[in-house]
Amino acid sequence: MAVHKLMLDDVFDDVAYTLVAMHCTLEDYRLVFLLNKHLKIKLARRSKDLDFNKGKSNYSIFEWEDEKQLTTWSLVSNTCKTESLQEISFGSLFENQEKITKTTHLIPEYKRVNYFLKIENEFSSSKEKYILDTILEIPQIATAYSIDTFQLKSKDNLIFS
Questions:
Q1: Nearest 10 degrees: CA dihedral of 138, 140, 142, 143?
Q2: How far apart are CA 120 and CA 38, in angstroms?
Q3: Widest CA span in the chain
Q4: Into how many domains does the chain fold?
Q5: What is the model's pTM?
Q6: Which domain range does residue 99 map to?
Q7: What is the 3 state secondary structure string of 20-74?
Q8: What number of other Cβ atoms are within 10 A of residue 23's Cβ?
Q9: Which residues pair with 65 in a beta bridge?
Q10: Quick one: three-class SS letters along 95-148?
Q11: Which of 24, 53, 51 is nearest to 61 (CA)?
Q12: Which superkingdom heads the taxonomic lineage of this protein's source (predicted)?
């Protein structure tokens, strides 16, 4: 009986995408408005946020699928702040509770980055530079830069579907 071996190496290749890190203090909806205006895109909030650790950390996400260019644009927050109550006892008769704010990051290697813009398409370097220059023209954004995705340790967190 013959043995058939199937090779699936080409099927699971990495999807080409550009990742732009942005530093700004804007709320996510305000940043989306400015990006839509300057880049002429149509980002809209997803009905559900990104959920990691079984609901312990949620990250806001905005997406737009460009049918003409076959491109998917995603803006995701890098920080999630959660509050919890922790009981403090000093050996006294009364128990006290203290609010603890815990901050988690989608991409822990870039803790200072506020938002990531992921563009799923293979752009030429000139198109990528145009997008980055357009983002840097927005006065409310302190800085923005491209990230080499091959160097990321937590690139699995960037799989949104």
A1: -30
A2: 19
A3: 79
A4: 1
A5: 0.81
A6: 18-46+57-158
A7: EEEEECCCHHHHHHHHHHHHCCCCEECCCCEEECCCCEEECEEEEEECCCCEEEE
A8: 15
A9: 72
A10: CEEEEEEEEEECCHHHCCCCEEEEEECCCCHHHHHHHHHHHHCCCCEEEEEEEC
A11: 51
A12: Bacteria
**Does 73 fall in a domain?**
yes
Q: What is the pLDDT along the chain (161 residues), one digit of tens a residue?
A: 677 776 655 444 456 888 999 999 999 999 999 999 999 999 999 988 888 777 678 899 999 998 888 889 999 999 988 877 777 766 666 667 778 888 888 999 999 999 999 998 877 778 889 999 999 999 999 999 999 888 888 888 888 77
Euclidean distance between CA atoms 105 and 81, whole angstroms: 9
71 contacts 49 by C-beta, under 8 angstroms: no
Query: Which amino acid, 33?
Result: F
